[in-house]
């Protein structure tokens, strides 16, 4: 049986950090070095930084000061990068080492935290500016290699990109035995206003909130639905045909709903079936745009292909569920009308 290190144990490890590391994590001078930039948000998902830091400190050969540095802009990040010379790769390197350590210890919580940490949005120079992806270092762990960081929600194509990242994260969390729905907690904030001279956006950065202010202040914008997460996990687990089967299921469900409605002579039921079909078609078209959006990022071709497949499969499965629900509701309405007519007939016979 796989040994799972408890959350309490990992938190205990955190308390053993050196004074230097703790000062680096909490020092107010960290933010003063950033100049004009997007308002700090590196502590918004604090609980994942805490667990990642605990796992990292089990073995830290690159002498990375603290996971928080990986979420800062390059000028500040490099000051806590240790032996990592590419600041754009510090977040990835931190996550990779933390994941390695947690895996060796059998700590599922630590592995999940490292995966989530890898996908958190980094601070950038202004609202709407996307952060640079790491290209100079290849992760040791394929689970980390499959992931990139969320982008500023106001940047071009961010909605599609961030959704694809969250769905891939769910697949990787599931692969290590974690709850894939935790991937929704990797989301970022509502988009800020591009050109805002304050760089304020809609962020928070509370230092003494162990949970993370994005959660306690209810600022998290989830990238996907629970159904899409479940569908992405199914698709990413090797069921490549899930998307196609779900899409075929959509047509069957809608047709069945419309047919049942017509058989009952219920125009409203037919309308419901058609509406469900239209919604599914619209979502499918939107999913089809994902590849185009991702292709315009710095992601490599294989990553774009995988993220596109997972996103489309999730959309197809979600549409299938929606269409089936619509058809069931339509059939239920038609059946209800049929029972009502039959009841009237019995009443007339008794008279």
TrEMBL record:
Entry superkingdom: Eukaryota
Q: What are the start and end residues of every segment in region (Disordered)? A: 21-44
Q: Where is the composition biased (Basic and acidic residues)?
A: 35-44
Q: Name the UniProt key words of this record, in alphabetical order.
A: Signal
Q: Which residues form the signal peptide?
A: 1-16
Q: What is this protein called?
A: Cell wall protein
């Amino acid at each position: 049986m796989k040994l799972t290190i408890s959350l309490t144990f990992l938190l205990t490890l955190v308390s053993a950090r050196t004074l230097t590391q703790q000062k680096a994590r909490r020092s107010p001078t960290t933010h003063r070095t950033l100049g004009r930039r997007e308002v700090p948000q590196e502590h918004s998902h604090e609980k994942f930084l805490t667990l990642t830091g605990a796992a990292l400190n089990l073995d830290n050969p690159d002498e990375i000061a603290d996971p928080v540095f990986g979420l800062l802009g390059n000028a500040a990040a490099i000051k806590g990068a240790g032996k990592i010379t590419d600041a754009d790769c510090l977040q990835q390197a931190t996550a990779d080492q933390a994941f390695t350590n947690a895996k060796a210890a059998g700590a599922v919580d630590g592995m999940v935290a490292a995966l989530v940490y890898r996908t958190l949005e980094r601070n950038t120079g202004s609202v709407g500016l996307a952060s640079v992806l790491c290209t100079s270092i290849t992760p040791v762990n394929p689970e980390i290699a499959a992931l990139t960081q969320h982008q500023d929600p106001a940047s071009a194509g961010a909605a599609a990109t961030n959704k694809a990242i969250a769905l891939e994260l769910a697949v990787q969390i599931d692969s290590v035995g974690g709850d894939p729905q935790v991937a929704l907690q990797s989301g970022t904030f509502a988009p800020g206003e591009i050109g805002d001279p304050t760089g304020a956006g809609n962020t928070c950065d509370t230092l003494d909130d162990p949970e993370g202010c994005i959660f306690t202040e209810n600022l998290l914008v989830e990238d996907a639905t629970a159904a899409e997460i479940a569908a992405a996990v199914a698709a990413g687990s090797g069921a490549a045909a899930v998307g196609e089967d779900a899409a075929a299921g959509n047509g069957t469900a809608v047709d069945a709903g419309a047919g049942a409605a017509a058989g009952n002579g219920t125009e409203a039921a037919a309308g419901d079936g058609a509406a469900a079909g239209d919604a599914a078609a619209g979502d499918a078209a939107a999913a089809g745009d994902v590849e185009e959006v991702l292709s315009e990022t710095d992601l490599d071709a294989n990553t774009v292909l995988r993220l596109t497949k997972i996103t489309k499969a999730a959309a197809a499965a979600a549409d299938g569920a929606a269409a089936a629900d619509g058809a069931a509701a339509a059939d239920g309405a038609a059946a209800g009308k049929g029972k009502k007519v039959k009841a009237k007939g019995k009443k007339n016979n008794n008279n």
